[in-house]
Amino acid sequence: MRVLAVDPALRNTGYAVLERLGRDIRAVTWGVISNPASRLQSQCLVSIREELHRVIRDFQPHVCAVEGIIFVQSYKTAIIMGAARGAALLAAAEHDLEIFEYAPRRVKQAVVGKGAAQKQQVAFMIRALLGLAETPSADAADALAIGLTHLQSDDPLKNTTGLMIRV
Fold first, then answer.
1. DSSP structure class, residue 69
2. Distance from C-alpha of 135 to C-alpha of 124, rounded to nearest angstrom
3. What residues are paired with 3 via a beta bridge?
């Protein structure tokens, strides 16, 4: 099974494709879709959608796992994050991928062992758990952690830690 994992954000969307073969899990690809501050928000959303289309086309995942909405103190930030998340969900839905949502605390708990882990701890553990030669950037590491959380679930369709989203 292959999973596309996405940590959506307007300026730096982390993505990863992980694969489970029997009991083994490996990272197929990962990266960050970076949008400069000078780029209009609408252009950023198109960039996120188009890049995720390319990743889906090139790596043929079976499902998509995405980080759930987190609490933010600014409604403006929440709206921008929601728009980036929408672009990612649209790309997955356009390829008929089932979409699963994981709370950030759940992902950190699954990878580090505590829900309040720092980004550096997540990146370090991802490198160790997946046997990567280098520590991935924070956004890519978050996406890898989301994918790993999904693949470690026995049956995400029945697992209450992973909420399936119907788009």
1. P
2. 6
3. 18, 63
Q: Residue 164 carries which DSSP code?
A: E
Range(s) of the domain holding residue 159:
2-165
Q: Where in the sequence numbering do the catalytic residues fall? A: 7, 67, 139
- 107 — phi, psi (to 5°)? -65, -45
Q: What is the pTM of this model?
A: 0.90
Give tens-digit pLDDT for 55-99: 999 999 999 999 987 766 788 888 888 999 999 999 999 999 999
Q: What is the pLDDT of residues 117-128, one digit of tens each?
A: 888 889 999 999
**What is the distance between the alpha carbons of residues 32 and 23, in angstroms, rounded to a whole number?**
27
Return the CATH number at 60: 3.30.420.10
CA–CA separation, 9 and 117 (whole Å):
19
| SS3 letters across 19-59 | EEECCEEEEEEEEEEECCCCCCHHHHHHHHHHHHHHHHHHH
State the total domains in the chain.
Answer: 1
Beta bridge partners of 101: 66, 163
Compute how many other C-beta atoms are within 10 angstroms of the C-beta atom of residue 58.
11
